[in-house]
Amino acid sequence: MKVPFVDLKAQYGSIKSDIDAAIATILDNAAFIGGQAVATFESAFAAFVGSRHCIGVANGTDALTLALRGLDIGVGDEVVTVANSFIASSEAISNAGATPVFVDCAADTYNIDVSRLAAAITPRTRAIVPVHLYGRPADMTAIMAIAREHDLKVVEDCAQAHGASLDGRMVGTFGDAACFSFYPGKNLGAYGDAGAVVTTDAELARRVRMTANHGRMSKYDHEFEGVNSRLDGLQAAILTVKLRHLESWTEARRRVAARYTANLAGSGLPLPSDPAGGRHVYHLFVIRLQERDRVQAALTEAGIATGIHYPIALPNLTAYARLGHQAQDFPVASAYQDQVLSLPMYPELADDQIDYVCDRLLAVL
Ligand SMILES: *Cc1c(COP(=O)(O)O)cnc(C)c1O
């Protein structure tokens, strides 16, 4: 049996007629940049998150950079984020002109270790970028308390966590701003690059929208220099169709996770789960193994595609050699980079495929 890591074709097949019609409408109207389709998606997505403003942008990395710039964070400022994430979380901090400061992840949640957060704060610290990694909400109650105490802004990286929640409140509604990626493989994925910033702050929303569109609101009246980072009409139309299915896809991901959990319960493997009062949306289903590379090779041999998120913790990347970190400065993230393994995870994954993955995994252990 072949089990792919994700299957974007299966999802397109299930919504093909609606997607094709939405694309045809954009082509017929030649509404490629801006226009009604973008405005429609922005208001639908703001409503989904439970926030007031949504600004569609070109990708999730730009969303983070634009939110930080919109909060006037830049040269000379430090921004704290987590050692275990995709590089975009810290890259956006550098792109805004500021310096990323890493905090190790917690051993049980993979998210930023809030017990180490205060020690990373200096007089230059302006903001925290918590990441809801793998779809599991970070501890926003503790993070917001520390942010308030130190007068810091919070920009949530929700790129892997569309629809995740804590105590009935969606991620993306806790911080000053929140950033989403609609990269095709994300829980809500476009058919190309796309992203969004959401916020309840009207002035911040205005600054982000202007910065993403050459520093303007009206055609040639540029109040400052920005960038070109707009959501295009085709992606917006596709995302509007797909957003209607997101809740059922999230429930399907949670069913996949529950079946993995039931099948692997006796294995002694550390398995992901919901935080107390929270909802994990399983962008990824990540386990840890001492002999990760051997197990991954055996699964590949059995036709099962897996992933590693991420093989090099952010402070250990060549890209951050300038910061002079040692792997032992981030003991959890540095150990986990050699242990984490992401099992196949997508809404259309069938029960017999899940059972096959678990059987092979238990056999090679
Ligand atoms: C995907 C991702 C991003 C960046 O999104 P892009 O749309 O690919 O630019 C940011 N943060 C995290 C945690 C991600 O997984």
List the helices and strands and how they pair.
Elements lengths: L7 H22 L6 H14 L3 E5 L2 H11 L7 E5 L5 H8 L3 E5 L21 E5 L10 H11 L2 E5 L7 E2 L2 E2 L6 E5 L13 E5 L2 H10 L21 H32 L13 E2 L5 E4 L3 H10 L29 H6 L3 E4 L7 H14 L1
Parallel strand pairs: 2-3, 2-4, 4-5, 5-8
Antiparallel strand pairs: 1-9, 6-7, 6-10, 8-9, 11-12
Helix pairs in contact: 1-7, 2-7, 3-4, 3-6, 7-10
Structure commentary:
- The protein is α/β, with parallel strands linked by helices.
- The protein folds into two domains: 230 residues, Aspartate Aminotransferase, domain 2, CATH 3.40.640.10; 119 residues, Aspartate Aminotransferase, domain 1, CATH 3.90.1150.
- The chain has ten helices and twelve strands.
- The strands form three sheets. It has a seven-stranded mixed sheet with strand order 1-9-8-5-4-2-3, sandwiched between helices. A three-stranded antiparallel sheet has the order 7-6-10, with no helix packed on it. Strands 11-12 form a two-stranded antiparallel sheet.
- Helix 4 links the parallel strand 2 and strand 3.
- Helix 2 runs parallel beside helix 7 and helix 3 packs across helix 4.
- The longest helix has 32 residues.
- The protein is globular, with a radius of gyration of 20 Å.
- The protein starts with 7 loop residues before the first helix and ends with a helix.
- The model has no long low-confidence stretch (mean pLDDT 97).
- The structure holds pyridoxal-5'-phosphate (PLP).
- The site of pyridoxal-5'-phosphate has 15 residues, from helix 3 and helix 4.
